[in-house]
């Protein structure tokens, strides 16, 4: 298995090499192994996928830092790939909490991770830009010298605040605070994406797997995107297939879903392959 420092270097290199790459989001060790078998070069955890697997909602501080890091550690152990983590809002309001989260992330072998400016609270969903920037700065200082790739996320668009100007201002501030990658989840148009990529000089991550948004890798690369994640969409696709099969049994008393389910032998073979 690739050593931690080698994974960190490999992850950083993906961001400096030419072109655009996909970093898919497994929610557990098994889904991570399958993505590695398909040839992806790096993986990122999904806070929503983890929350759903624990029967909890996403985005409201329902998953602890320890649970998130334990999940990430399981994914790291299951694959040879660099793994980055969705570290939500750093698991605390103060900059020191973000710094501690990054230190613990590095300690378990994560090659990167993201800190967002969402509070997880309904009344005040987004941190004020000054406070948000200080949180990113603390995280960047904690990562300094380790090779850890820090992503800073501006969450406006996920909370109904489709304010592109403010989102760009936030990303620019996070860049100055030391973030290595910038990310504004929820962008849906070429104009929004181009506005972001042309306003910063760090690699930009965008999220795909959104309903009604169908850019290709080539199209996103032409818009200046470096990295493409898919958030909870793989987990939601799996849950959707599960619910469709379960509803067929519950509502119709039939079992035709077995016709399209992946054969047991095929799944077994996949997990029997040596890394």
Question: How is this structure best described in words?
Answer:
By secondary structure, this protein is α/β, with parallel strands linked by helices. It contains eleven helices and eight strands. The protein has an eight-stranded parallel beta sheet with strand order 1-8-7-6-5-4-3-2, with helices on both faces. It is globular and about 55 Å long. The chain starts with a helix and ends with a helix.
Q: SSE layout and pairings?
A:
Elements: H1 4-16, E1 21-23, H2 29-37, E2 43-44, H3 47-53, H4 65-78, E3 83-86, H5 95-107, E4 112-116, H6 129-143, E5 149-153, H7 164-176, E6 181-183, H8 190-197, E7 204-207, H9 217-222, E8 227-229, H10 233-252, H11 264-272
Helix pairs in contact: 2-4, 5-6
Short description:
By secondary structure, this protein is an alpha/beta fold.
Poorly predicted segments: none
What's the total count of β strands? 8
Largest sheet, strands/sense/barrel? 8 strands, parallel
Give the CA-CA distance, first to last residue.
Answer: 8 Å
The ordered string of helix (H) and strand (E) elements is HEHEHHEHEHEHEHEHEHH
Estimated helix fraction = 40-55%
**Binned strand content:** 5-15%
Number of helices: 11
Structural class determined from secondary elements: alpha/beta
Global Rg: 19 Å
Tell the overall outline: globular
Spatial order of strands in the largest sheet: 1-8-7-6-5-4-3-2
* Average pLDDT rating: 97
Q: What key attributes describe this structure?
A:
275 residues, alpha/beta, 8-stranded parallel sheet
